[in-house]
Write a structure and sequence with these properties.
The chain has a single domain, classed as 3-Layer(aba) Sandwich (Aminopeptidase). 23% of the residues lie in helices and 22% in strands. Strands 1-2-3-4-5-7-6 form a seven-stranded mixed sheet.
Protein backbone atom coordinates (compact mmCIF):
# COMPACT_ATOMS: atom_id res chain seq x y z
CA UNK A 1 0.00 0.00 0.00
CA UNK A 2 1.33 3.44 -0.92
CA UNK A 3 1.37 5.99 1.89
CA UNK A 4 2.05 9.70 1.90
CA UNK A 5 5.42 10.78 3.18
CA UNK A 6 5.51 13.52 5.80
CA UNK A 7 6.76 15.82 3.06
CA UNK A 8 3.78 15.09 0.80
CA UNK A 9 1.06 14.97 3.45
CA UNK A 10 -1.17 18.04 3.52
CA UNK A 11 -1.79 19.27 7.04
CA UNK A 12 -4.95 21.35 7.15
CA UNK A 13 -5.66 23.58 10.13
CA UNK A 14 -8.56 25.88 10.95
CA UNK A 15 -7.99 28.80 13.27
CA UNK A 16 -11.13 30.25 14.80
CA UNK A 17 -10.96 33.94 15.78
CA UNK A 18 -7.42 34.65 14.52
CA UNK A 19 -5.54 37.51 16.16
CA UNK A 20 -3.67 40.54 14.89
CA UNK A 21 -0.51 38.47 14.38
CA UNK A 22 -2.41 36.50 11.70
CA UNK A 23 -3.31 39.60 9.69
CA UNK A 24 -0.69 38.91 7.00
CA UNK A 25 -2.20 35.46 6.42
CA UNK A 26 -5.72 36.87 6.16
CA UNK A 27 -4.64 39.64 3.82
CA UNK A 28 -2.80 37.15 1.59
CA UNK A 29 -6.00 35.16 1.22
CA UNK A 30 -7.95 38.33 0.52
CA UNK A 31 -5.64 39.54 -2.24
CA UNK A 32 -5.10 36.16 -3.91
CA UNK A 33 -8.61 34.73 -3.62
CA UNK A 34 -10.46 37.74 -5.02
CA UNK A 35 -8.60 38.30 -8.27
CA UNK A 36 -11.53 39.83 -10.17
CA UNK A 37 -12.53 43.44 -10.67
CA UNK A 38 -14.86 44.90 -8.07
CA UNK A 39 -14.79 47.88 -5.75
CA UNK A 40 -15.27 45.98 -2.48
CA UNK A 41 -14.34 42.43 -3.47
CA UNK A 42 -10.94 42.69 -1.76
CA UNK A 43 -11.10 44.00 1.80
CA UNK A 44 -8.32 46.32 2.87
CA UNK A 45 -5.94 45.50 5.72
CA UNK A 46 -7.79 48.13 7.75
CA UNK A 47 -11.13 46.39 7.25
CA UNK A 48 -9.65 43.01 8.16
CA UNK A 49 -7.92 44.40 11.23
CA UNK A 50 -11.17 45.89 12.47
CA UNK A 51 -12.96 42.57 11.97
CA UNK A 52 -10.48 40.69 14.17
CA UNK A 53 -9.96 43.28 16.89
CA UNK A 54 -13.41 44.71 17.59
CA UNK A 55 -16.39 43.18 19.45
CA UNK A 56 -14.28 40.54 21.18
CA UNK A 57 -15.06 37.10 19.78
CA UNK A 58 -18.68 37.78 18.85
CA UNK A 59 -17.84 38.19 15.16
CA UNK A 60 -16.93 35.06 13.25
CA UNK A 61 -13.54 34.87 11.53
CA UNK A 62 -11.99 31.59 10.39
CA UNK A 63 -8.56 31.15 8.81
CA UNK A 64 -7.62 27.94 6.98
CA UNK A 65 -4.01 26.94 6.40
CA UNK A 66 -2.45 24.07 4.49
CA UNK A 67 1.05 23.04 5.49
CA UNK A 68 1.19 26.27 7.50
CA UNK A 69 0.50 28.38 4.41
CA UNK A 70 -2.49 30.72 4.10
CA UNK A 71 -5.21 28.91 2.15
CA UNK A 72 -8.67 30.31 2.88
CA UNK A 73 -10.80 32.50 5.10
CA UNK A 74 -14.41 33.14 6.06
CA UNK A 75 -16.01 36.15 7.76
CA UNK A 76 -19.47 36.61 9.21
CA UNK A 77 -21.32 39.05 11.45
CA UNK A 78 -24.77 39.31 13.00
CA UNK A 79 -27.57 41.83 12.62
CA UNK A 80 -31.28 42.07 13.29
CA UNK A 81 -33.41 41.14 10.28
CA UNK A 82 -37.18 41.45 10.22
CA UNK A 83 -37.34 38.44 7.83
CA UNK A 84 -39.01 40.55 5.14
CA UNK A 85 -37.19 39.69 1.91
CA UNK A 86 -38.52 42.89 0.35
CA UNK A 87 -36.15 44.79 2.64
CA UNK A 88 -33.06 42.96 1.41
CA UNK A 89 -31.10 45.33 -0.79
CA UNK A 90 -27.43 45.35 -1.81
CA UNK A 91 -24.34 43.68 -0.31
CA UNK A 92 -22.79 47.15 -0.12
CA UNK A 93 -25.66 48.45 2.01
CA UNK A 94 -25.88 45.55 4.45
CA UNK A 95 -22.12 45.25 5.02
CA UNK A 96 -21.47 49.00 5.08
CA UNK A 97 -19.23 48.51 2.03
CA UNK A 98 -17.29 45.78 3.80
CA UNK A 99 -16.87 47.60 7.13
CA UNK A 100 -18.81 44.80 8.79
CA UNK A 101 -17.65 45.56 12.34
CA UNK A 102 -19.58 48.83 12.17
CA UNK A 103 -22.90 47.05 11.53
CA UNK A 104 -22.32 43.95 13.67
CA UNK A 105 -24.80 43.34 16.50
CA UNK A 106 -23.46 40.66 18.91
CA UNK A 107 -27.00 39.57 19.83
CA UNK A 108 -28.47 39.92 16.31
CA UNK A 109 -31.03 37.34 15.26
CA UNK A 110 -29.43 36.69 11.85
CA UNK A 111 -25.96 35.71 10.73
CA UNK A 112 -24.52 37.23 7.57
CA UNK A 113 -21.89 35.35 5.54
CA UNK A 114 -19.61 38.07 4.19
CA UNK A 115 -17.62 35.86 1.86
CA UNK A 116 -15.62 32.66 1.68
CA UNK A 117 -12.26 32.99 -0.05
CA UNK A 118 -9.84 30.24 -1.08
CA UNK A 119 -6.47 30.83 -2.73
CA UNK A 120 -6.59 29.40 -6.29
CA UNK A 121 -3.96 26.68 -5.78
CA UNK A 122 -6.14 25.11 -3.06
CA UNK A 123 -9.45 25.20 -4.89
CA UNK A 124 -11.14 22.03 -6.06
CA UNK A 125 -9.09 19.78 -3.79
CA UNK A 126 -10.53 17.78 -0.92
CA UNK A 127 -8.63 17.74 2.35
CA UNK A 128 -8.39 15.67 5.45
CA UNK A 129 -9.23 17.67 8.57
CA UNK A 130 -9.91 17.40 12.28
CA UNK A 131 -13.39 18.93 12.25
CA UNK A 132 -16.54 16.98 13.10
CA UNK A 133 -17.67 16.08 9.57
CA UNK A 134 -16.47 12.65 8.42
CA UNK A 135 -14.58 12.30 5.16
CA UNK A 136 -12.75 14.83 3.05
CA UNK A 137 -14.12 18.19 1.92
CA UNK A 138 -13.10 21.25 -0.05
CA UNK A 139 -11.82 24.16 2.04
CA UNK A 140 -14.77 26.34 1.01
CA UNK A 141 -17.19 23.69 2.28
CA UNK A 142 -15.39 23.34 5.61
CA UNK A 143 -15.17 27.10 6.09
CA UNK A 144 -18.90 27.57 5.52
CA UNK A 145 -19.86 24.55 7.63
CA UNK A 146 -17.67 25.73 10.52
CA UNK A 147 -19.10 29.25 10.29
CA UNK A 148 -22.71 28.03 10.21
CA UNK A 149 -22.05 25.99 13.35
CA UNK A 150 -20.64 29.01 15.14
CA UNK A 151 -23.48 31.35 14.16
CA UNK A 152 -26.26 28.94 15.09
CA UNK A 153 -24.50 27.91 18.31
CA UNK A 154 -24.31 31.59 19.32
CA UNK A 155 -28.05 32.00 18.88
CA UNK A 156 -28.64 33.12 15.30
CA UNK A 157 -32.11 32.16 14.10
CA UNK A 158 -31.07 32.02 10.47
CA UNK A 159 -28.07 32.86 8.28
CA UNK A 160 -28.17 34.76 5.00
CA UNK A 161 -25.70 35.70 2.30
CA UNK A 162 -25.78 37.99 -0.70
CA UNK A 163 -24.05 35.62 -3.10
CA UNK A 164 -22.04 36.64 -6.12
CA UNK A 165 -23.19 35.26 -9.48
CA UNK A 166 -19.87 35.12 -11.35
CA UNK A 167 -21.16 33.30 -14.45
CA UNK A 168 -23.88 35.89 -15.10
CA UNK A 169 -21.64 37.63 -17.63
CA UNK A 170 -21.91 34.43 -19.71
CA UNK A 171 -25.70 34.79 -19.94
CA UNK A 172 -26.41 38.53 -20.22
CA UNK A 173 -29.37 37.68 -22.43
CA UNK A 174 -31.58 36.75 -19.46
CA UNK A 175 -32.64 38.77 -16.44
CA UNK A 176 -31.21 38.12 -13.00
CA UNK A 177 -34.28 36.25 -11.73
CA UNK A 178 -34.21 33.88 -14.70
CA UNK A 179 -30.48 33.45 -14.28
CA UNK A 180 -30.68 32.52 -10.58
CA UNK A 181 -33.25 29.84 -11.45
CA UNK A 182 -31.30 28.58 -14.47
CA UNK A 183 -30.13 24.96 -14.19
CA UNK A 184 -27.82 22.73 -16.18
CA UNK A 185 -28.90 19.52 -17.89
CA UNK A 186 -28.06 17.55 -14.73
CA UNK A 187 -30.50 19.64 -12.69
CA UNK A 188 -27.84 21.59 -10.78
CA UNK A 189 -27.81 25.38 -10.78
CA UNK A 190 -25.79 26.92 -13.60
CA UNK A 191 -23.97 29.46 -11.46
CA UNK A 192 -21.10 27.88 -9.46
CA UNK A 193 -21.54 30.05 -6.37
CA UNK A 194 -25.30 29.48 -6.19
CA UNK A 195 -24.69 25.78 -6.82
CA UNK A 196 -22.23 25.76 -3.91
CA UNK A 197 -24.68 27.42 -1.51
CA UNK A 198 -27.47 25.04 -2.51
CA UNK A 199 -25.15 22.08 -1.92
CA UNK A 200 -24.37 23.44 1.54
CA UNK A 201 -28.08 23.63 2.41
CA UNK A 202 -29.17 27.15 1.42
CA UNK A 203 -32.12 28.14 -0.72
CA UNK A 204 -32.45 31.12 -3.04
CA UNK A 205 -34.78 33.77 -1.70
CA UNK A 206 -34.21 36.93 -3.77
CA UNK A 207 -32.19 37.84 -6.89
CA UNK A 208 -31.21 41.51 -7.07
CA UNK A 209 -30.02 43.63 -9.97
CA UNK A 210 -27.40 45.50 -7.95
CA UNK A 211 -25.32 43.93 -5.19
CA UNK A 212 -21.88 45.54 -5.50
CA UNK A 213 -19.42 46.60 -8.19
CA UNK A 214 -18.47 43.23 -9.66
CA UNK A 215 -17.78 42.84 -13.39
CA UNK A 216 -18.20 39.05 -13.53
CA UNK A 217 -21.61 39.25 -11.84
CA UNK A 218 -22.68 42.27 -13.90
CA UNK A 219 -23.04 43.93 -10.46
CA UNK A 220 -25.94 41.60 -9.63
CA UNK A 221 -26.31 39.15 -6.75
CA UNK A 222 -28.66 36.72 -5.13
CA UNK A 223 -29.77 36.44 -1.51
CA UNK A 224 -29.65 32.92 -0.10
CA UNK A 225 -30.96 31.65 3.24
CA UNK A 226 -29.68 28.96 5.61
CA UNK A 227 -32.09 27.74 8.28
CA UNK A 228 -29.95 25.03 9.81
CA UNK A 229 -26.36 23.87 10.21
CA UNK A 230 -24.62 21.95 7.45
CA UNK A 231 -25.64 18.30 7.30
CA UNK A 232 -23.22 16.05 5.42
Amino acid sequence: MNTLSDRDRKTTAFLFNPKEEHLDFLYEVETRAWNVTGENLTASREKLLERITSHGNSQTVVLATVNEKAAGSQYAFRFNWDEDINNLKSWDQYTNNGWTSQVHKPDGNTGFLVGVGVIPEFRGQKFEHNLKWPGTYRLSELLIAFTLDDLFDKGAKQVIANARVPFYHKRPDINIKEYCDFRRGDGLLFDPVLRFHERMGARIIKPIGYSMEDEESLNAGCWVLYQQKFVC
